Amino acid sequence: MRYLFFFFISFFSFAQQTQKVDFKTVTGNITINPIERKVFGSVRYVLEVKETLDTIKIDAQNMTFTNVAMNGKEAMYLNSGKKLVLYGNYKKGKYNLTFTYEATPKQTLYFNGDFKNEVISNQQVWTQGQGKYTSHWFPSFDDVNEKVVFNLNITFDKKYNVLSNGVLTKVYPDKNQKIWMYTMTKPMSSYLLALAIGDFSHKVVASKSGIPLQLFIQPKDTAKFEPTYRHSKQIFDFLEKEIGVKYRWKIYKQIPVEDFLYAGMENTASTLFAQDFVVDAIGFNDRNYINVNAHELAHQWFGDLITAKSGKHHWLQEGFATYYALLAEREIFGEDYFYYQLYKSSLQLKNAAKNDTIPVMNEKASSLSFYQKGAWALHVIRESIGAKAFQKAVKNYLKKYAFQNVETENFLDEVRNVSNFDTAAFSKQWLEDYKFNSQEVNLLLNKNKFIQQLVKVQKMCDIPLQEREIEFKTIMQSDAYFPVKTEILYQLKEVPFVEKTEILQLALQTNTIKIRQAVAEFTDEIPMEFKSQYETLLEDASYETREIAFMNLWKNFPNDRMRYLNLAKNWVGMNDKSLRIMYLTFYTLSTEADPVLKTSYYQELVDYTSPKFESSVRQNAIINALLINSKDSLVLQSLINATTHHKWQFVKFAKDKIRELLTQEGYRELFVASMPTLTLTEKNSLQKLLDEKK
């Protein structure tokens, strides 16, 4: 008990003394066991004690430790459940800390698929350590200010590809496994440490500066490689030139993973992103990876090379990444696209400012503030001091603080060094005040002629159609950017069809996907004389347009439903299989359909609700299957299983749906009856929901 007493005094008295220790490098020799969902191995830290102290701490969530030694000698330590705490008389100098550990992470390290199954196509392991969570699977540091050079040697089944930060230096065979050795030469914050394991192949493209860009994909998605990674090299080359500082890591990987928690994550030199952005040529027109691609790449400078000291300055990462992603998109899609994105974000920010009273420079600021208002703040500076001065300030800022941690004032210092810009007034208005300066924003937006035209058309909404019809037709036949034309179609939504027929025909003739999609969306009632023209939307290179058009035609022309089903029978859609699920649902509900096929198709739909598929597929399938048979025990069991998923968005959907069903007659009995078929985790999850509604 004497040692424990000493520990608690030490822990509270010296909680801040870890700042006196500089962890230099770490080498982790780890093994991942996907069946037991465990990680274990040995770790060696090289560290420097700068001032004499008696406590050294490493963040480690729910881990066990053995063989803990400092400079080869057994070390006194205590495992608090959250930290590995070493105590003794540590004098100034360098130390080697070694230990072995084991963990069964409840978060941060995720396992997709059933690894007991021989089929590896949907089996993946990946990490998401955003903020401070890497300590759940690797003993490290929740404090972003502690930067370390990480090296990982990872042992795993040889059938898979194992990816991590840095350069793959060697791969060793080890019976039925392999050891992948990844090395780095520059320090980073622990939350940027990453793993991705799965059935991946890749292509390598060299950037203009010679950096290898490794672009990974699952073999089943090989045909989607080009549209998924379209413009990747252009984005990399542009950002390196625009930022003015060379990419500081030796390699850059991009890896899509299934059921990822967010759109993407900028792990150093190894971005992970959601499988939803793996698209074919048609899907590219509905949802593509370009913005996320550019955003996560920009983070390699803003967040990875330099890192905000605290959440208060988080906008230095997200605001910069958002703005530079927009600049990259401007390079690809043009000036009008750039201003349209700024315009849309300005509307969001204006609306949010009515209720959101937390400014950008606050650790509790909203994502909208960190990302979009942060980007707008940078645009204000760039427009005020000029692009060249802005680039010089950013370049100086990155070079001065490379591999360090920063605060807002560090960046503003560099702005002052290249201009006479009033950073104090700027900071007070854009970073310290929650209000959104609409007047300044409108002046900046109105520099663009397309925005001027869009605003002009928006102001015409209350003018009688006969007074604006000629101008609308002229615009529809011009080269005006598409949002101006979709605004016209939106204004005509409630206008009698006979009065807008010619404009709708002109809109279809533009052959612009977004404009034709607006025709599909804003035309509820389809007269017979417009039917054949509207039906051409079913062939557009847009899954979203096809879905909207199909459902609208289904509603308007009941006698043609089987023909529409025949047209849609081979549709699949995006990663969520939205068009296939739509087809299965409408066919099953059709009174004219083949009864045998209806049974088969319904079984396929129910299968999509199961854990064999990604959450986006399952959620879509569960919603539709319950429309057909609201008390199907297999679907309800899939819904219960969904409450145990790692993806919080899917869990929320499932729990909310069960809560809704429990308010209806007969469902409590159905859920209770399912208990014997559930796993322990599923039973516990369901029981909590049942207890809520007693």
Describe the structure.
The protein is an alpha+beta fold and 694 residues long. Helix content is 43%, strand content 20%. It is built from 26 helices and 23 strands. Strands 1, 2, 4, 5, 8, 11, 13, 14 and 15 form a nine-stranded mixed β-sheet that branches. It has a five-stranded mixed β-sheet with strand order 17-18-19-21-20, with helices on one face. Strand 1 and strand 2 (38-49) form a beta hairpin. Helix 5 (315-333) packs antiparallel against helix 6 (335-352), helix 5 packs across helix 7 (367-385) and helix 6 packs across helix 7. The longest helix is centred in the middle third of the chain and has 19 residues, at 315-333. The chain starts with a helix and ends with a helix. The model is unreliable at 1-17 (pLDDT under 50).
Radius of gyration: 28 Å
Give the termini distance in whole angstroms.
46 Å
Number of helices: 26
The backbone outline, from C-alpha atoms, is globular
**Residues in β-strands, percent:** 15-25%
Largest sheet: 9 strands, mixed
**Average pLDDT for all residues:** 94
Which structural category do the helix and sheet elements fall into? alpha+beta
- Low-pLDDT stretches are 1-17
Helical residues, percent = 40-55%
Q: Tell me the total number of β-strands.
A: 23
